[in-house]
Specification:
It is a single chain. The protein is an all-alpha fold. It has a domain of 157 residues: LemA-like domain (de novo design (two linked rop proteins), Up-down Bundle), CATH 1.20.1440.20. Helix content is 60%, strand content 0%. Helix 2 packs antiparallel against helix 3. The longest helix is centred in the first third of the chain and has 36 residues. The C terminus is likely disordered.
């Protein structure tokens, strides 16, 4: 009669049970969770790339001596708020934290859109190769952000679905009960409305208007006497 040691018995049980466990989707939830976290890291990477481009963009616009400064200030402040809000992979299931992050990034997107609309009134910027290069990089980054967010939503949808469907639902309610649904990106209220910019203040003929833009290094025109 063959006698098995406890170790041999455990190994034999593992050989028999593990394929069954794997076939029942035991590994699905952690695998999809890691995929969603990786997708989230890609989202953050693209947002960081955008944040890194903004100081150079603001500096270039300032160097062009544009008269309108409010939008520049808004971009700088929005960037500070956006980089000050973080969501770690461990808190992706926190709706409040996720909404704060999304709102801050959305505010920065709106501020950048307003800035790019403002500079359309300044031909010297449209001819500035440095500005054009930065603008192109920002546009490319916005496209990458959109793709990264879409990929993240796709990964999270698969993960969240596994938490609610059979057979992975069994593991989500037993051995993997610490797995919680992650938040999805959604359109912010601000994204439903195109950013608006009032150019009246840029016209010298408008009440309280400022002087027209001048090229860098040029002497501003003398104020017109009332």
């Amino acid at each position: 009669m063959i006698r098995f040691t406890p170790r041999a018995t455990a190994i034999a049980a593992a050989v028999i049970i593990l394929p069954t466990v794997a076939g029942c989707g035991y590994n699905t939830i952690p695998a999809q969770q890691e995929a969603a976290r990786t997708a989230w890291a890609n989202v953050q990477s693209q947002y960081q790339r955008r944040a890194d481009l903004i100081p150079s963009l603001v500096s270039t616009v300032q160097g062009a001596a544009i008269q309108e400064r409010t939008t520049l200030t808004q971009v700088t402040e929005a960037r500070a708020r956006a980089t000050g809000v973080t969501v770690s992979p461990e808190t992706l299931n926190d709706p409040a934290a996720f909404q704060r992050y999304q709102a801050a990034q959305g505010e920065l997107s709106q501020a950048l859109s307003r800035l790019l609309m403002v500079v359309e009134n300044y031909p010297q910027l449209q001819a500035n190769q440095n500005f054009l290069a930065l603008q192109s990089q920002l546009e490319g980054t916005e496209n990458r952000i959109a793709v990264a967010r879409r990929d993240y939503n796709t990964a999270v949808q698969a993960y969240n679905t596994s938490l609610r469907t059979f057979p992975t639902l069994i593991w989500a309610r037993t051995f993997q009960s610490d797995a919680e649904p992650m938040q999805l990106f959604s359109a912010t209220p601000e994204a439903q409305t195109a950013p608006s910019v009032n150019f009246d203040g840029l016209s010298p003929s408008a009440p309280g208007g400022t002087a027209p833009p001048v090229a860098p290094g040029a002497t501003p025109p003398a104020p017109v006497a009332p």
